[in-house]
Amino acid sequence: MNAVNLDYPNSIKRLAIYCGANTGSDPAYKAAAVSLAHTLVRENIGIVYGGGGVGLMGVVADAAIAAGGEVIGVIPEAIKALELGHTQLTELHTVPDMHSRKAMMLALSDAVIALPGGFGTMDEVFEALTWSQLDYHRKLCGFLNVKGFYDPLFQWIDHAVAVELIKPINLELTVRTHDIDEMIYELRTRPFPLAQKWMGR
Predict the structure, then answer these.
(1) How far apart are the first and last CA of the chain?
(2) pLDDT at residue 116 above 60?
(3) What secondary structure letter does DSSP report for 82?
(4) With 60 as the cut, is the pLDDT of residue 111 above it?
(5) Which residues, in sequence order, are CB contacts of 158 under 8 Å at separation 6+?
(6) For every residue of 181-198, which 3-state class applies, written as one string?
(7) At 108, is the secondary structure helix, strand, or coil?
(8) Which stretches of 15-170 are DSSP H helices?
(9) Helix or strand (DSSP H, E) at 56
């Protein structure tokens, strides 16, 4: 499991997957979660996620476990106490709080993919992006744009670039696609932008 693929410049052994604690109203979200899990298992890529057994988080975990994949959960004590933790993972790490959860998930992963989700998903993926922008780590962040879910977010990002609040080079930190195979390929092959990305003029 998780042997380095020397055919690609970026070693992707594990991906942090951010997604909703609800499944959402569109069955396409659940279908995409299952497809992503199956693709990662097929590509010998482990999953790091929030450790829950509900919503799209649970869908991803269940599908990967059923397919024989590695699934590592990171869950805060307060959420685990609500009996929302998954009980059949490869590993489940219990941490004190949300800050610790996000830090550990990123430490265990090589890049990030966001499925559709709510406030928590946005909090996690934008913290990962900010840390990449500041060169605290070098991890690309993918948005799996299921049925155009992230189109309004992309419009805001492009607007922020247009009004010079986000530097254009920082767009290279994001991968935007609805296609799972394209997402994995981009995360494996795209060079990480190394210029001074965040300093003002």
Answers:
(1) 46
(2) yes
(3) T
(4) yes
(5) none
(6) HHHHHHHHHCCCCCCCCC
(7) helix
(8) 27-42, 55-66, 77-81, 98-108, 119-133, 151-162
(9) helix 55-66
Domains of the chain, CATH where assigned:
35-144+166-189 (3.40.50.450)
Give the other-Cβ count within 10 Å of 72's Cβ: 21
pLDDT per position as a tens digit, 154-174:
999 999 999 999 999 999 999
Backbone angles phi, psi at 61, to 5 degrees: -60, -50
Nearest-angstrom CA–CA distance, 60 and 71: 9
Is the C-alpha dihedral spanning 38, 39, 42, 44 positive or negative? negative
pTM value is 0.91
Kindly state the tokens that stand for 197: 């990305």
Q: In what order do the strands lie in the sheet with 174-177?
A: 91-95, 71-76, 46-49, 14-18, 111-114, 141-144, 174-177
